[in-house]
Amino acid sequence: MSVLIAPSVLASDFANLQSEVEMLNDSQADYIHVDIMDGVFVPNISFGIPVTEAIKKHAKKPLDVHLMIVNPDQYLEAFQKAGAEIISVHVEACNHLHRTLQAIKDLGCKAGVAVNPHTSVDVLEDVIQDLDLVCIMSVNPGFGGQKFIENTYKKVRKLKEMINRAGSSTLIEIDGGVNQDNASKLFEAGADVLVAGSFVFSANDPKGTIARLKEIR
Known about the structure:
Blueprint: E1 4-7, H1 17-25, E2 32-37, H2 49-58, E3 63-68, H3 76-82, E4 84-90, H4 97-106, E5 110-115, E6 133-137, H5 152-166, E7 171-175, H6 183-189, E8 193-196, H7 198-201, H8 206-214
Parallel strand pairs: 1-8, 2-3, 3-4, 4-5, 5-6, 6-7, 7-8
Helix pairs in contact: 2-3
């Protein structure tokens, strides 16, 4: 299976959001990654439900919504109604993770969990069968354009072993600092989905950049 690409609209031109989304529709992107930040769980504020609805209005690719917020349970239904098809919550923000995952699934969405760089994937062992996706943060969440954390490869391999042992079909997504230099090593380690923000939207040819990432083997 080829790697899945999920460009992050956090790095897009917000003044031309419709045209940016339409560009992704015409590209080989598999998902559109939407980063929701509240300024509390992470030290930045991005956008919320109305902008997600606006993206969905024009999107022809599934919305992969990443909630970097406290109390995510309060907003699951709102983001589902806004158009999310995948909802990922942070393990660090959930006191009752299993309950949250079931709530996401009950809404008809795929359930994901994101883990910060300091968090071991071991915490997912008891819920791995309930997960459609694990988003491994390869930078500290909050800002785009950060340097990739090299320990990520080790975490991906460890998580892949856990998934295989459990006989699960959970996808591994990498978020942060993904580019042409590390994409193939991430795929080799076991990654299934690559989130690319600045690398795509700062490129002279974003669609060509996505196409080249899709060729990673």
